[in-house]
Structure formats: C-alpha cells, structure tokens
Sequence to fold (67 residues):
Amino acid sequence: MSEQENRVVLTDIDISFGRLIVLFVKFGLAAIPAAIIVWLIMAVLIGLFGALFGGVGFMGGMMGGRY
Fold:
C-alpha cells in the first residue's frame, strides 16, 4: 500500500479576546511550577559540580581571604 501525505494548512483561528486572555493566564500560571522545578534541578547540579571540583574555595579570595 502506498502512503499518502495529508497536508493541512491552517489559515485562520477564530478565538475571542477573553478566551485568549484566559489561555495566556493559564500558560503563565503553568510556567511558575515549571520554573521552580528547573531552578531546583539547576541548584542541585551546580552544587554537585561545585562539590566535585572544589568551586567553593574560590569564594575565599573574593571575600578578602587568602588565595
């Protein structure tokens, strides 16, 4: 059997302004937990790399301590 390509071209979306605002608010609220999760993952990774490579020792020179 031959495979046929079915192409769809979307030309116009009819959505009211109020529904569009609700959609954007939902997207904005959904982004908050996602940003928190990404922040936690990055904090753990940065902490692991800092502990692995001794990145905390560099802070002593920045705080006025000996190099």
User: Anything to note?
Assistant: DSSP finds two helices and no strands in the chain. Residues 17-62 form one domain. The CA atoms of residues 48 and 58 lie 16 Å apart.
